[in-house]
Amino acid sequence: xxxxxxxxxxxxxxxxxxxxxxxxxxxxxxxxxxxxxxxxIKAVKVLDNTVVFINICYLEEYYFSTEVELDGADxxxxxxxxTSPEIMDYKKYIGKSAHYHxxxxxxxxxxxxxxxxxxxxxxxxxxxxxKERIKNEYIxxxxxxxxxxxxHRKSLLKKLDNLKDExxxxxxxxxxxxLAYALEKYPELSELEPSLIKRIVAELDAHIEARMLNED
Length: 216
Hints:
- The chain has about 220 residues and is α/β, with parallel strands linked by helices.
- Helix content is about 50%, strand content about 20%.
- It is built from 7 helices and 7 strands; from the N terminus they run H-E-E-H-E-E-E-H-E-E-H-H-H-H.
- The strands form 2 sheets. Strands 1-3-6-7-2 form a 5-stranded mixed β-sheet.
- A hairpin with a 5-residue loop joins strand 6 and strand 7.
- The termini are far apart.
C-alpha cells in the first residue's frame, strides 16, 4: 500500500484525502472504526463526508536501535539489525510508509481508522523479541560480573584477615603501621573502601591483643 493507491481508493468513492502531520484532540465524539479500509470508506460516505485527513508514519533508522543500561557506565546503544539477520532484512523498508491514521470529521462525530502494513507488524514483533533477548543476555552478563566482583572482594578480605597470624603484622606497634604494612604487602587491598580496611585492621589489632593477653 502507498499514498497513491490510497488516494485512488478514496477518490473512487468521491472522497478527498488530505495529508496532515498529526491530529489534535477534537471536541465531541470521536470513534475508532472497527473494520478494513474498504468498510471505512463506506462508513465515511454514510456520514456524508467528502474529506478525510491522513497522518502517515514512516519507518526510520532509529526504530532499529535500543539502549541497554550498563552498571556504572553510560547506556550502550545497540543496532538491532546488527544482532539479528531477520531484522536486517527489514532495513529495505526505511523511508517507506508503515502506519496510516485516518480521521473523518462529521457533525455526527469523528471517525478514526488505523491501518498498518503487514511487514510493519512483523518487524515490531521481531524488534520486541530481539530487545528482550538482548536485555536477558545483558542481565546474565551483569549477574556473572557481580559474582566475579564478589568473589574477588572475598579473596581480598581473606588476605586481610590472614594477616592476624603473620608475625611481621603482629609486630607492627600501631594500627596506622599495620594498615601501611597491609597495603604495602597487598597493594590490591586499595580496591576496598578505605573505611572498611581501617575498621578491619582495628578489629585485627584488637584480636591480636586479646590473643596475646590470653596467652599470658
